[in-house]
Amino acid sequence: MKKSHLPQKICLVCKKPFNWRKKWSRSWDEVKYCSERCKRNKKQIHE
């Protein structure tokens, strides 16, 4: 599959788009953040 055809989501913290990764293949539906850094900074969502 070409990279341009991969599923994409918007990060809840930084609001930037990110693409599907193989390591997320089993849990893509639960992925909400583009990186560990955004995941740690999720408090910013509520401010």
Overall description:
It comes from Aquimarina celericrescens. The chain has 47 residues and is α+β, with helices and mostly antiparallel strands. The protein has one helix and two strands, in the order E-E-H. It has a two-stranded antiparallel sheet with strand order 1-2. The longest helix is centred in the last third of the chain and has 5 residues, at 36-40.
Count of domain modules: 1
Beta percentage is 5-15%
Mean pLDDT: 88
Described by strand count, sense and barrel closure, the largest sheet is: 2 strands, antiparallel
Question: What is the total tally of β strands?
Answer: 2
SSE string: EEH
Which strand order do you get reading across the main beta sheet?
1-2
Low-confidence stretches: none
Descriptive tags:
11% helix, 1 helix, DUF2256 domain-containing protein, alpha+beta, two-stranded antiparallel ribbon, UCP037205, 47 residues, globular
Layout of helices and strands:
Blueprint: E1 8-10, E2 17-19, H1 36-40
Antiparallel strand pairs: 1-2
Summarize the structure.
The chain is of the alpha+beta class and 47 residues long.
